[in-house]
Amino acid sequence: xxxxxxxxxxxxxxxxxxxxxxxxxxxxxxxxxxxxxxxxxxxxxxxxxxxxxxxxxxxxxxxxxxxxxxxxxxxxxxxxxxxxxxxxxxxxxxxxxxxxxxxxxxxxxxxxxxxxxxxxxxxxxxxxxxxxxxxxxxxxxxxxxxxxxxxxxxxxxxxxxxxxxxxxxxxxxxxxxxxxxxxxxxxxxxxxxxxxxxxxxxxxxxxxxxxxxxxxxxxxxxxxxxxxxxxxxxxxxxxxxxxxxxxxxxxxxxxxxxxxxxxxxxxxxxxxxxxxxxxxxxxxxxxxxxxxxxxxxxxxxxxxxxxxxxxxxxxxxxxxxxxxxxxxxxxxxxxxxxxxxxxxxxxxxxxxxxxxxxxxxxxxxxxxxxxxxxxxxxx
Length: 379
Hints:
By secondary structure, the chain is of the alpha+beta class. The chain is built from 12 helices and 7 strands. GO terms for molecular function: protein histidine kinase activity.
């Protein structure tokens, strides 16, 4: 027995009307979500919980079923705001029924509604708490699955890259040997033009070699096969720029280089040259869209414990929709691009205790390489 026997008896007498009222509201708000007999069974239990004031809310049997109900909501992809709106519809349905009674005292009805509201609030908070825990667990599981899929994808790329590099390296080794023999067997009578041709071929050979090194960064052997050596930033840059100098001349690009500080960088030289070559080539590709005054600037300087190299061009900005994912595999804005270049660059820089980033706005794109020089000095 409770002090609200009369009011509770009235509610139970109109149980069907209250539940029916609630169902109309929830189904109109979210059509297709709440159909079938299961809903009728659960709403009946919930009504008994709300009106069962003689049983403390914490001890009511419905609380033991709250985890199952929350799990069912998550499995059926029911949004959290449905739970909150449902609470509002229950309160509204009971208000409407109680408001039709002329026999009940308004003051007592208001006090009763406060107690019923407390029970509804308690159940809602319990279900919401479990719902959020289950949702977070589900999201974590999905994230792990995505990471695994991403790793599997990279492993596949690695196997393909290693296979391609192996097949290409064999004939390249032969080509390099024959180029060396040709140069050794040439005489002064053969003319300077042939020497220039040989220089071009050897430069292109080195460029291909760097591309293969980049591909190997996705294989299991990766770039860790290459030893670490000490080079100055100028030594690092000059060898790459000399290879790309014909392109700067042919495409009428003004190149300026400012290396304000010189440091010894302990790096994998060929791998990092691949990064620099990729960045410069991407910049030159962007400058093909510029009609006049094509410019590229390379700056090197020390900032705190870091040596920084910046590559800036005045080409168009990188499209905003791909900027956040630019270093991920297969992301590119080039029609015939593979989307692997910058992903390879990121891997190489990480292996060399460095980082790569960029800023791109209209008529100014800057890629930045960072090398930790404090650890280099200690090493």
